[in-house]
Design a protein that fits this description.
- There is one protein chain.
- α2 (about 65-90) packs antiparallel against α4 and α5 (about 140-150) crosses α6.
- The protein has about 300 residues and is α/β, with parallel strands linked by helices.
- It has a domain at about 65-260: 3-Layer(bab) Sandwich (minor pseudopilin epsh fold).
- About 40% of the residues lie in helices and about 15% in strands.
- It has helices at about 1-5, 65-90, 100-105, 115-130, 140-150, 155-170, 230-235, 240-250, 250-280, 285-290, and strands at about 10-15, 20-25, 35, 175-180, 200-205, 220-225, 295-300.
- The protein is built from 10 helices and 7 strands.
- Bound molecules: fe (ii) ion.
């Protein structure tokens, strides 16, 4: 572990105004030589982040989740997170970053920065809508079912554990099924369950807007257990809402697709680690050492000549 960590120090992503310096290793979406320039001088403000509609009509989940719930939950709560995020990041160093990047940067080792909650809630809700489908529920198949049975003993046991996590998240928050493939240290996040084990499914719950991206997990499934998610349909009966979600709404096809992507990404990481290890053993400079001058950063100046 230590050797792996020490290999990568030169290629970094920096946000000077936030005092943050992150390795791009863990965040492949952060490309070197990418430069964001504040465009405040142009007085043009664009909505960087858009409210994505659920992948089905608002009444499509009835009778299990009402149109009225979707109208409020997506049409008002989700919309507000997106609108507030746009207001928060416009003209700042965060403008132009992906939602995932903003989440990682602003989680700030648990010392959460102001934009985190809106960015994470915008991402979490997109992920939640896509975790459901009309006529969902039932049982997964293939690799997903095999892994569930391996890591939880049985599908039935998994269901019970997931329901328990969702029911016992105190106050507002989320419950997740995630693929834990992070042997790597994450320098801007705190892994609450550090382990040498990898490539396993885990159930985690998170308060407020926190999601497993900040622990470098691959989220596969989530349920929103904020009261606004179920109060219109179930009042205070959160366990009934959770049961209906698992039995009637979960899109296991989506979860399976996410798992395949997570496994592919984990395999890419392993290959990259192995390549770096070999280069170090052979005394060759790694790509990152060769690219020592490359640095992704956010520019605070208002030099219009650089604003493209
Ligand atoms: Fe919500």
């Amino acid at each position: 572990m230590a050797a792996t960590t020490s290999m990568v120090t030169s290629l970094t992503f920096t946000i000077p105004s936030l005092g943050l310096r992150l390795p791009t290793r863990s965040y492949p979406c952060l490309k070197p030589q990418r430069r964001f320039v504040r465009k405040a001088a142009s007085n043009v403000i664009t909505a960087t982040y858009e409210l994505k509609a659920p992948p089905y009509p608002l009444n499509a989940l009835e009778p299990h989740m009402s149109r009225e719930t979707l109208e409020y939950h997506w049409g008002k709560h989700h919309r507000t997170y997106v609108e507030n995020l746009n207001k928060q990041v416009v003209g700042t160093d965060l403008e132009g970053l992906s939602l995932e990047d903003i989440i990682i940067v602003t989680y700030n080792k648990g010392d959460i920065l102001p934009a985190f909650n809106n960015a994470a809630q915008a991402w979490n809700h997109d992920f939640f809508w896509e975790s459901m489908k009309p006529g969902g529920g039932g049982k997964p198949s293939g690799d997903l079912l095999d892994l569930i049975e391996r890591d939880f003993g049985s599908f039935e046991r998994f269901i019970e554990e997931f329901k328990a996590a969702a029911a016992t998240q105190f106050g507002s928050g989320w419950a997740w099924l995630a693929y834990k493939a992070n042997r790597l240290d994450v320098e801007n996040a705190v892994n609450p369950w550090p382990s040498e084990k990898d490539k396993e499914l885990v159930i985690v719950k998170s308060p407020n807007a926190v999601n497993p991206l900040v622990w470098d997990y691959f989220p596969l499934l989530t349920i929103d257990v904020w009261e606004h998610a179920y109060y219109l349909d179930f009042q205070n009966r959160r366990p009934d809402y959770i049961s209906v979600f698992m039995e009637k709404l979960v899109s296991w096809e989506t979860v399976n697709t996410r798992l395949e992507k997570a496994k592919a990404r984990a395999a890419e990481r392993e290959m990259e680690e192995e390549r770096r290890r070999k280069e170090e053993e052979e005394g060759k400079p790694t790509n990152e050492e060769e690219d020592d001058d490359l640095e992704m950063y956010v520019d605070n100046d208002n030099d219009d000549s650089e604003a493209e």
